[in-house]
Amino acid sequence: MQSRLSLLLLVYTLLVVISAISLYVLGEKRVDVYVSLNILAYYVSYATLRPTLTTRAVRFLNIALFVIFAIIVSFRVYEVLTS
Amino acid sequence: MNMRLLILGINVLVVSVLLVVYGILVGDSGLVGIALSTSIVGGVLVVYSTTPQDPSITALTGYSEILVNAITSTLEDLDLLESQVCVVKKSDSVLLVYSKIPCPIEVDPGVGFTGGSPYLAIPLRTLSELVESSSEAISTILERALITLLIEEYSACKSVRVEEESGFYRVYISGLVETLKQYLERPVDPYTLLTLVAASRALATRCVRLVEKRIMPDSVLLVLGVERSAE
Protein backbone atom coordinates (compact mmCIF):
# COMPACT_ATOMS: atom_id res chain seq x y z
CA MET A 1 0.00 0.00 0.00
CA GLN A 2 2.76 2.37 0.97
CA SER A 3 4.71 1.71 -2.25
CA ARG A 4 1.60 2.59 -4.26
CA LEU A 5 1.24 5.87 -2.38
CA SER A 6 4.93 6.63 -2.93
CA LEU A 7 4.50 5.91 -6.65
CA LEU A 8 1.48 8.23 -6.79
CA LEU A 9 3.43 11.06 -5.17
CA LEU A 10 6.44 10.42 -7.43
CA VAL A 11 4.38 10.45 -10.65
CA TYR A 12 2.46 13.53 -9.50
CA THR A 13 5.63 15.44 -8.61
CA LEU A 14 7.26 14.48 -11.92
CA LEU A 15 4.21 15.64 -13.88
CA VAL A 16 4.17 18.93 -11.97
CA VAL A 17 7.89 19.55 -12.55
CA ILE A 18 7.58 18.79 -16.27
CA SER A 19 4.47 20.96 -16.73
CA ALA A 20 5.82 23.89 -14.67
CA ILE A 21 9.19 23.94 -16.47
CA SER A 22 7.51 23.62 -19.88
CA LEU A 23 5.11 26.47 -19.17
CA TYR A 24 7.88 28.72 -17.84
CA VAL A 25 10.13 28.02 -20.83
CA LEU A 26 7.20 28.81 -23.15
CA GLY A 27 6.89 32.18 -21.40
CA GLU A 28 3.51 31.56 -19.79
CA LYS A 29 2.68 34.36 -17.35
CA ARG A 30 -0.83 33.41 -16.20
CA VAL A 31 -0.73 32.04 -12.67
CA ASP A 32 -3.99 30.08 -12.97
CA VAL A 33 -2.56 28.01 -15.85
CA TYR A 34 0.18 26.68 -13.57
CA VAL A 35 -2.32 25.90 -10.82
CA SER A 36 -4.88 24.24 -13.09
CA LEU A 37 -2.23 22.09 -14.79
CA ASN A 38 -0.97 21.09 -11.34
CA ILE A 39 -4.47 20.01 -10.32
CA LEU A 40 -4.88 18.09 -13.58
CA ALA A 41 -1.55 16.37 -12.92
CA TYR A 42 -2.82 15.37 -9.48
CA TYR A 43 -6.06 13.93 -10.82
CA VAL A 44 -4.27 12.05 -13.63
CA SER A 45 -1.87 10.52 -11.08
CA TYR A 46 -4.71 9.76 -8.65
CA ALA A 47 -6.87 8.12 -11.32
CA THR A 48 -3.96 6.05 -12.62
CA LEU A 49 -2.49 5.00 -9.30
CA ARG A 50 -5.51 5.16 -7.03
CA PRO A 51 -4.38 4.43 -3.46
CA THR A 52 -6.11 1.48 -1.83
CA LEU A 53 -7.00 3.60 1.17
CA THR A 54 -8.82 6.94 1.01
CA THR A 55 -9.00 8.85 4.24
CA ARG A 56 -11.27 11.75 5.13
CA ALA A 57 -8.41 14.22 4.65
CA VAL A 58 -7.70 12.89 1.15
CA ARG A 59 -11.39 13.12 0.22
CA PHE A 60 -11.44 16.72 1.45
CA LEU A 61 -8.29 17.47 -0.59
CA ASN A 62 -9.89 15.99 -3.71
CA ILE A 63 -12.99 18.14 -3.24
CA ALA A 64 -10.94 21.29 -2.50
CA LEU A 65 -8.77 20.83 -5.60
CA PHE A 66 -11.84 20.18 -7.74
CA VAL A 67 -13.47 23.38 -6.45
CA ILE A 68 -10.32 25.42 -7.21
CA PHE A 69 -10.15 23.89 -10.70
CA ALA A 70 -13.84 24.59 -11.31
CA ILE A 71 -13.42 28.23 -10.23
CA ILE A 72 -10.43 28.71 -12.58
CA VAL A 73 -12.27 27.16 -15.52
CA SER A 74 -15.45 29.13 -14.78
CA PHE A 75 -13.46 32.37 -14.65
CA ARG A 76 -11.83 31.60 -18.00
CA VAL A 77 -15.18 30.74 -19.61
CA TYR A 78 -16.66 33.96 -18.19
CA GLU A 79 -13.74 35.94 -19.65
CA VAL A 80 -14.27 34.40 -23.10
CA LEU A 81 -18.02 35.07 -22.99
CA THR A 82 -17.66 38.70 -21.91
CA SER A 83 -14.78 39.60 -24.29
CA MET B 1 1.04 9.65 10.37
CA ASN B 2 4.15 9.75 8.19
CA MET B 3 6.35 12.33 9.89
CA ARG B 4 8.96 12.42 7.12
CA LEU B 5 6.31 13.18 4.50
CA LEU B 6 4.76 15.80 6.79
CA ILE B 7 8.09 17.59 7.32
CA LEU B 8 8.82 17.42 3.59
CA GLY B 9 5.37 18.88 2.81
CA ILE B 10 5.78 21.72 5.30
CA ASN B 11 9.25 22.51 3.91
CA VAL B 12 7.88 22.61 0.37
CA LEU B 13 5.09 24.92 1.56
CA VAL B 14 7.58 27.29 3.24
CA VAL B 15 9.82 27.38 0.16
CA SER B 16 6.83 28.03 -2.09
CA VAL B 17 5.67 30.94 0.08
CA LEU B 18 9.16 32.45 -0.13
CA LEU B 19 9.11 31.96 -3.91
CA VAL B 20 5.71 33.66 -4.16
CA VAL B 21 7.02 36.66 -2.21
CA TYR B 22 10.17 36.80 -4.36
CA GLY B 23 8.12 36.43 -7.56
CA ILE B 24 5.84 39.30 -6.55
CA LEU B 25 8.83 41.49 -5.60
CA VAL B 26 10.61 40.98 -8.93
CA GLY B 27 7.32 41.13 -10.86
CA ASP B 28 7.69 37.68 -12.42
CA SER B 29 4.20 36.18 -12.58
CA GLY B 30 5.57 33.00 -14.13
CA LEU B 31 7.62 32.43 -11.01
CA VAL B 32 4.56 33.15 -8.85
CA GLY B 33 2.69 30.51 -10.85
CA ILE B 34 5.44 27.96 -10.28
CA ALA B 35 5.50 28.84 -6.57
CA LEU B 36 1.72 28.43 -6.22
CA SER B 37 1.95 25.14 -8.08
CA THR B 38 4.68 24.04 -5.68
CA SER B 39 2.53 25.05 -2.71
CA ILE B 40 -0.19 22.67 -3.94
CA VAL B 41 2.42 19.91 -4.07
CA GLY B 42 3.32 20.76 -0.46
CA GLY B 43 -0.34 20.65 0.56
CA VAL B 44 -0.80 17.26 -1.13
CA LEU B 45 2.26 15.90 0.69
CA VAL B 46 0.93 17.17 4.03
CA VAL B 47 -2.49 15.57 3.44
CA TYR B 48 -1.01 12.25 2.34
CA SER B 49 1.25 12.24 5.40
CA THR B 50 -1.90 11.61 7.48
CA THR B 51 -2.66 8.27 5.79
CA PRO B 52 -1.92 5.23 7.93
CA GLN B 53 1.44 3.54 7.66
CA ASP B 54 2.31 -0.08 7.16
CA PRO B 55 3.74 -0.46 10.69
CA SER B 56 0.20 0.05 12.16
CA ILE B 57 -1.18 -3.02 10.45
CA THR B 58 2.07 -4.92 10.99
CA ALA B 59 1.89 -4.21 14.71
CA LEU B 60 -1.80 -5.19 14.81
CA THR B 61 -1.04 -8.46 12.98
CA GLY B 62 1.78 -9.32 15.38
CA TYR B 63 -0.32 -8.43 18.40
CA SER B 64 -3.28 -10.41 17.06
CA GLU B 65 -1.16 -13.53 16.60
CA ILE B 66 0.07 -13.42 20.19
CA LEU B 67 -3.40 -12.64 21.54
CA VAL B 68 -5.20 -15.29 19.49
CA ASN B 69 -2.73 -18.05 20.38
CA ALA B 70 -2.78 -17.19 24.08
CA ILE B 71 -6.53 -16.81 24.41
CA THR B 72 -7.41 -19.84 22.27
CA SER B 73 -5.42 -22.17 24.50
CA THR B 74 -6.99 -20.65 27.61
CA LEU B 75 -10.48 -20.99 26.12
CA GLU B 76 -9.73 -24.63 25.28
CA ASP B 77 -8.74 -25.29 28.88
CA LEU B 78 -11.91 -23.61 30.16
CA ASP B 79 -14.12 -25.40 27.61
CA LEU B 80 -15.23 -22.05 26.27
CA LEU B 81 -14.50 -22.52 22.57
CA GLU B 82 -18.23 -22.44 21.79
CA SER B 83 -18.83 -19.53 24.16
CA GLN B 84 -20.47 -16.17 23.65
CA VAL B 85 -18.29 -13.09 23.38
CA CYS B 86 -19.28 -9.72 24.71
CA VAL B 87 -17.81 -6.49 25.99
CA VAL B 88 -18.83 -5.43 29.48
CA LYS B 89 -18.31 -1.87 30.58
CA LYS B 90 -17.40 -1.54 34.24
CA SER B 91 -17.05 1.71 36.13
CA ASP B 92 -13.31 1.98 35.53
CA SER B 93 -12.57 -0.49 32.75
CA VAL B 94 -13.87 -2.37 29.73
CA LEU B 95 -13.75 -6.17 29.73
CA LEU B 96 -13.89 -8.59 26.83
CA VAL B 97 -15.78 -11.55 28.27
CA TYR B 98 -16.00 -15.13 26.99
CA SER B 99 -18.76 -17.05 28.74
CA LYS B 100 -21.57 -19.50 28.07
CA ILE B 101 -23.95 -17.02 29.70
CA PRO B 102 -25.05 -14.39 27.13
CA CYS B 103 -23.96 -11.24 28.92
CA PRO B 104 -22.63 -11.64 32.46
CA ILE B 105 -22.21 -8.27 34.15
CA GLU B 106 -20.71 -9.38 37.48
CA VAL B 107 -17.27 -10.33 36.19
CA ASP B 108 -13.75 -9.41 37.19
CA PRO B 109 -10.62 -9.44 35.04
CA GLY B 110 -9.17 -12.93 34.63
CA VAL B 111 -10.76 -16.34 34.95
CA GLY B 112 -13.75 -16.98 37.20
CA PHE B 113 -17.23 -18.39 37.60
CA THR B 114 -20.50 -16.58 37.16
CA GLY B 115 -23.94 -18.20 37.19
CA GLY B 116 -22.31 -21.64 37.46
CA SER B 117 -20.34 -21.17 34.28
CA PRO B 118 -16.67 -20.30 33.78
CA TYR B 119 -15.70 -17.09 32.09
CA LEU B 120 -12.59 -15.40 30.80
CA ALA B 121 -12.50 -11.61 31.10
CA ILE B 122 -9.74 -9.59 29.47
CA PRO B 123 -9.37 -5.90 30.35
CA LEU B 124 -9.20 -3.62 27.31
CA ARG B 125 -8.01 -0.10 26.89
CA THR B 126 -10.90 2.23 26.09
CA LEU B 127 -10.77 4.16 22.86
CA SER B 128 -10.90 7.71 24.12
CA GLU B 129 -10.33 9.25 20.70
CA LEU B 130 -13.74 8.23 19.41
CA VAL B 131 -15.96 11.20 18.69
CA GLU B 132 -19.39 11.24 20.24
CA SER B 133 -22.26 13.47 19.26
CA SER B 134 -25.72 13.29 20.76
CA SER B 135 -27.38 14.84 17.70
CA GLU B 136 -26.48 11.94 15.39
CA ALA B 137 -27.90 8.45 15.14
CA ILE B 138 -26.00 5.85 17.13
CA SER B 139 -25.33 3.79 14.02
CA THR B 140 -23.70 6.84 12.39
CA ILE B 141 -21.51 7.45 15.45
CA LEU B 142 -20.53 3.79 15.50
CA GLU B 143 -19.82 3.75 11.78
CA ARG B 144 -17.62 6.82 12.04
CA ALA B 145 -15.79 5.37 15.03
CA LEU B 146 -15.14 2.13 13.15
CA ILE B 147 -13.97 3.99 10.04
CA THR B 148 -11.51 5.95 12.16
CA LEU B 149 -10.29 2.83 13.91
CA LEU B 150 -10.30 0.12 11.25
CA ILE B 151 -9.62 2.15 8.11
CA GLU B 152 -7.78 5.29 9.09
CA GLU B 153 -5.81 3.97 12.04
CA TYR B 154 -5.02 0.35 11.13
CA SER B 155 -5.86 0.04 7.40
CA ALA B 156 -7.48 -3.26 8.37
CA CYS B 157 -10.26 -3.00 5.77
CA LYS B 158 -11.54 -0.85 2.93
CA SER B 159 -15.06 -0.02 4.02
CA VAL B 160 -17.34 -0.22 7.04
CA ARG B 161 -21.12 0.15 7.07
CA VAL B 162 -23.41 0.02 10.09
CA GLU B 163 -27.18 -0.50 10.00
CA GLU B 164 -29.59 -0.57 12.90
CA GLU B 165 -32.34 -3.17 12.69
CA SER B 166 -34.82 -3.80 15.49
CA GLY B 167 -32.34 -3.17 18.28
CA PHE B 168 -29.47 -4.98 16.59
CA TYR B 169 -26.53 -3.35 14.87
CA ARG B 170 -25.35 -4.96 11.66
CA VAL B 171 -21.72 -4.09 10.94
CA TYR B 172 -20.52 -4.86 7.40
CA ILE B 173 -16.74 -4.86 7.14
CA SER B 174 -15.38 -5.40 3.63
CA GLY B 175 -12.02 -5.35 1.90
CA LEU B 176 -10.34 -7.27 4.69
CA VAL B 177 -6.58 -7.38 4.96
CA GLU B 178 -5.15 -10.81 4.06
CA THR B 179 -2.95 -11.03 7.16
CA LEU B 180 -5.90 -10.52 9.53
CA LYS B 181 -8.45 -12.56 7.58
CA GLN B 182 -6.97 -15.82 8.89
CA TYR B 183 -8.10 -14.99 12.43
CA LEU B 184 -11.80 -14.73 11.53
CA GLU B 185 -12.30 -18.47 12.02
CA ARG B 186 -10.63 -18.34 15.44
CA PRO B 187 -12.37 -17.56 18.75
CA VAL B 188 -10.62 -14.20 18.94
CA ASP B 189 -10.24 -11.99 15.89
CA PRO B 190 -9.18 -8.35 15.72
CA TYR B 191 -12.23 -7.27 13.70
CA THR B 192 -14.71 -8.57 16.29
CA LEU B 193 -12.64 -7.30 19.16
CA LEU B 194 -12.19 -3.76 17.81
CA THR B 195 -15.84 -3.59 16.70
CA LEU B 196 -17.11 -4.65 20.11
CA VAL B 197 -14.90 -2.15 21.91
CA ALA B 198 -15.95 0.69 19.59
CA ALA B 199 -19.59 -0.36 19.97
CA SER B 200 -19.43 -0.48 23.75
CA ARG B 201 -18.30 3.12 23.72
CA ALA B 202 -20.57 4.42 20.98
CA LEU B 203 -23.70 2.67 22.28
CA ALA B 204 -23.12 3.85 25.86
CA THR B 205 -24.44 0.62 27.32
CA ARG B 206 -23.10 -1.78 29.95
CA CYS B 207 -22.84 -4.80 27.67
CA VAL B 208 -22.58 -5.36 23.93
CA ARG B 209 -22.51 -8.93 22.69
CA LEU B 210 -21.77 -10.57 19.39
CA VAL B 211 -24.99 -12.20 18.20
CA GLU B 212 -23.81 -13.46 14.85
CA LYS B 213 -20.62 -13.51 12.78
CA ARG B 214 -21.01 -14.31 9.10
CA ILE B 215 -17.75 -14.72 7.22
CA MET B 216 -17.71 -14.07 3.47
CA PRO B 217 -14.76 -14.30 1.03
CA ASP B 218 -13.68 -10.67 1.35
CA SER B 219 -15.90 -9.38 4.10
CA VAL B 220 -17.49 -10.15 7.42
CA LEU B 221 -20.89 -9.30 8.88
CA LEU B 222 -21.06 -8.80 12.63
CA VAL B 223 -24.43 -8.53 14.30
CA LEU B 224 -24.22 -6.82 17.68
CA GLY B 225 -26.86 -6.98 20.36
CA VAL B 226 -27.22 -4.57 23.24
CA GLU B 227 -27.83 -6.19 26.62
CA ARG B 228 -29.08 -3.99 29.40
CA SER B 229 -29.88 -6.52 32.10
CA ALA B 230 -27.43 -8.30 34.38
CA GLU B 231 -26.95 -12.08 34.30
Stretches with pLDDT under 50, minimum 5 residues of chain B: none
Q: Main sheet of chain B?
A: 8 strands, antiparallel
Widest beta sheet: strand line-up of chain B: 3-4-2-1-7-8-6-5
Domain module count of chain A? 1
> Which two chains have the most extensive interface, and how many residues on each?
A-B, 35 and 27 residues
What is the mean pLDDT of chain B?
83
Order of helices and strands of chain A: HHH
What does this structure look like?
The complex is a heterodimer of chains A (83) and B (231). Chain A contains three helices and no strands. Chain A has one domain (2-82). Chain A is mostly helical and 83 residues long. The model of chain A has no long low-confidence stretch (mean pLDDT 89). Chain B has 231 residues and is an alpha+beta fold. Chain B has two domains: 3-48; 54-227, no CATH class. Helices cover 44% and strands 25% of the residues of chain B. Chain B is built from six helices and eight strands; from the N terminus they run H-H-H-E-E-E-E-H-E-E-H-H-E-E. Chain B has helices at 3-26, 29-48, 54-77, 138-153, 178-181, 190-202, and strands at 84-89, 94-99, 110-114, 117-124, 159-165, 168-174, 207-215, 219-227. Chain B has an eight-stranded antiparallel beta sheet with strand order 3-4-2-1-7-8-6-5, covered by helices on one side. In chain B, helix 1 runs antiparallel to helix 2 (29-48) and helix 4 (138-153) packs across helix 6. The radius of gyration of chain B is 23 Å and the shape is elongated. The mean pLDDT of chain B is 83.
